[in-house]
Amino acid sequence: IPMVDEKGKNMKCLTFFLMLPETVKNRSKKSSKKGNSSSSSKLPPVCYEIITLKTRKKKKMAADIFPRKKPANTNTTAVQQYHQQNLNNNNTIPAPNWQGLYPTIRERNAVMFNNDLMADVHFVVGPPGGTQRLPGHKYVLAVGSSVFHAMFYGELAEDKDEIRIPDVEPAAFLAMLKYIYCDEIDLAADTVLATLYAAKKYIVPHLARACVNFLETSLSAKNACVLLSQSCLFEEPDLTQRCWEVIDAQAELALKSEGFCDIDFQTLESILRRETLNAKEIVVFEAVLNWAEVECQRQELTATIENKRKVLGKALYLIRIPTMALDDFANGAAQSGILTLNETNDIFLWYTAAKKPELQFVSKPRKGLVPQRCHRFQSCAYRSNQWRYRGRCDSIQFAVDKRVFIAGFGLYGSSCGSAEYSAKIELKRQGVILGQNLSKYFSDGSSNTFPVWFEYPVQIEPDTFYTASVILDGNELSYFGQEGMTEVQCGKVTVQFQCSSDSTNGTGVQGGQIPELIFYA
């Protein structure tokens, strides 16, 4: 028996000659029939030695003895890695006794990943002109997927050496095979949707769940509309709900993103019907026109007014044009050319006439989202020498236990009558600016808080501390908070506060400025 040590080096070969007692007895009988009474002397000597190994140590599994090494980090993308694996993955086995180099069944199984060794089926994956031929092993695939089991061992199984799969991208198919063979999940932003499609098609639920988790983690206003479309296609209600949360709160960013123009008509209609869409209607109108132009290109139509109306169909009337500000309508929608002359006249009459005409457009304003306010002080006060602002920074850190969208801050105003303040607000995570805005607000001399808004709501992930800062410029003293709380329950959201090293004007957990966080949840 050839022996190798744990490093794969050859050791001495041991040869065992085993003769069972029953065999010796039978040979003795045959010899006695020939009248040879001393047959035992003519038989080969039976040599045996029984060696008993005893140990007091607890028995270990192979995986405990040879822990699997973590793969080294690389700077290449997952797609490049998969393409490289397809070219020179495991097609050459380093030694004839390679099985002895891998102590666990999972590692030995992983050697077969994308390997022609013992492959009994091949897949031609990808659309025409972009295919890759990938090897497979029916038994391994059938163990990992019920679809592969039915394909290779079911009642309607076909004995084909080559299977064409034109609707799956090669990188996504390799990601699925890697999970089936190696029990490893490698996902990348540019292939995760295609991998989810493959996992759904071949019913690999744990991989599909990992893809959904990856998408939820990377969800933002830039990709929310596309992911909404895909989540409905893949029937993933949790992901759909997450997409709606982002689209509602950051509607204007989502509508202005490039991904909005890539959605299908059904998703477009569902967004336009949304009551909680937190956006100006002129932004919705402009986004729909951009979508119509791209859709004309997809249908190989010239982007004329007639063709834009054609691809939009009845979805055009889901834009709530009568709810626009009059200036937005007069300078925007009325001059876009997308409306007929009669539609334009009727909408102008809707704004101005006492007797309003009937319109095909929805005339009821959207409800939008109601902002929530997290107030962190139990009382407020003012003194003759506080709270002064000379260009110094008031700052506080906070963390939430659920994803929210910070729309702005509530700030204290003047304690000496009405006054105007200039406020530069900022939101950072680990030193990176996520949102900032420079604006003015007028205080009436009361102890109320006054809202200052970001241009767009900022997405806040749970269990991570963010830094809220404001630099105020004003001549008058202001109120300030007292008896601050380190933890505040605001609806279903728990907010924790801690002091910030950026604060140079005295604001902290116990007192100071930034009494309120204004957010959508």
UniProtKB/TrEMBL annotation:
InterPro entries reported in the protein's UniProt record: BACK, BTB/POZ_dom, PHR, PHR_sf, SKP1/BTB/POZ_sf
Ranges for domain BTB: 119-189
SUPFAM superfamilies per the UniProt record, alphabetical: POZ domain (SSF54695)
Originating organism: Rhinopomastus cyanomelas
Cell compartments where the protein resides: Cytoplasm
Pfam families linked: BACK, BTB, PHR
UniProt keyword list: Cytoplasm
GO CC, one annotated term: cytosol
GO BP terms, alphabetized: cerebral cortex development; dendrite morphogenesis
Source organism superkingdom: Eukaryota
Protein name: BTBD3 protein
